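Record type: ASSEMBLY
Status: queued
Input:
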Amino acid sequence: MSGDADKRADAAEMKLAASPWKPFEARRRERDVKRGAVLRVAVSLFLEQGYDRTSLNEVAERLNITKPALYNYFRSKEEILVECYRLGQEKAMAGIERILAKPDTGLVRLRALIRHYCEVMTLDFGQCLVRVDDHVLSALARDQVREGKRLIDRYFRDFLTSGMEDGSIKPCDVRLTVFAITGAINWVGHWYRADGEMTAREIGDTYAMQLTGSLAVEET
Amino acid sequence: MSGDADKRADAAEMKLAASPWKPFEARRRERDVKRGAVLRVAVSLFLEQGYDRTSLNEVAERLNITKPALYNYFRSKEEILVECYRLGQEKAMAGIERILAKPDTGLVRLRALIRHYCEVMTLDFGQCLVRVDDHVLSALARDQVREGKRLIDRYFRDFLTSGMEDGSIKPCDVRLTVFAITGAINWVGHWYRADGEMTAREIGDTYAMQLTGSLAVEET
DNA sequence: TCTTTGTATTACCGGTCGGTAACTTATCGA
DNA sequence: TCGATAAGTTACCGACCGGTAATACAAAGA
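Status: finished
Output:
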């Protein structure tokens, strides 16, 4: 009896050793790839036509599947949009954590955040944050999404405030100044074209200096 | 023969003198008032819930009438939205004409436009310009609306350019600078609340200085 | 007073969309 | 080889929405 069990276990171990979780993981990976493909197609159509005017049939058609197949990966159309928002916010947060990782003055951090957020606004998932009206979401999901937006906004305010404290930024109305900065950057999501004249980096560099021009203590 | 005609004319004239176009004009005025009421309710709901999620039944309900009655004043839902856009653009253009009326440096004019456009962004019809996605419009109507937006944008660029020419503004990338300025102001349409801390004028004054801070030649 | 005109109503239509049920097919593990 | 599971498909449903007759009704004009 134990012989049989051992043999099975050995066989399983050899298999696992050769390629751990092979079938299971491979399947999960495939699934994630497909899920990601749905999101990329969906966000692209949402930006192109608007959320309400994009039917799940269209999304499915572009993926060469049928609408009900989408429900293998998402519970509802709303969940698809929420995931798009989440991916955009994730991108933004990744940059923020990178900035927080090394010590710097508030001004340097603020400029870095401006540069990074400009780049986010050139991505589909980033543009989704400002171009798809979150009114289409249920109250619950909307609160969730807005919480994420507030979090990003908070870091703008934090960096500006700490810049005023460490003397790298002149005193100013934090709320209004951050609104002006984020507004200018959000607008990038509306006019940026990948085939346009400027790269994301050039826009970011220019904005980083221009939007902090009247705030910086030492003119560089 | 001429007696009859004269008598009719006299009667008509007396009537007209007492109250010209009385019945006709009064009716037209009533009609315009009602038409305006539809637009005000509609734009308010569009901002609150989004265009696609606002049904004409809801609009009608808030006006204590029924949906088909709306079709006495508008040919379609789209026409209602186009009118909302138009009213917003009209507000903006009125300010621009006021600015053009008196000669000034490019910097002064740019600042005046910033102040004015900030105020437009605190009005429903102004917010409509930036918060209702024009993807819901047919291609034709969309082009029409975008032409209006471009026109307003053009004056920002004109004022900035003439400021660089008359020496009141430092050399800069016109396109990018105007995008930054208009983006910051457009964002006001998203966060402004009539019951908030700041008045439209305060926001405008602050932005007028802050957004031109790094552009002005003479620091004021 | 009769007619016309404008404004509103009720009832209804066609079409679309999100979502579901039932069924088929392919793949993997035992 | 056989059964379970995942991933598709076709067919369909209920709800809603923009828009349109057909009609009622009040007020102004002749």
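Annotation: The two ends of chain A are 79 Å apart (CA to CA).
Annotation: Residues 1-17 of chain A have pLDDT under 50 and may be disordered.
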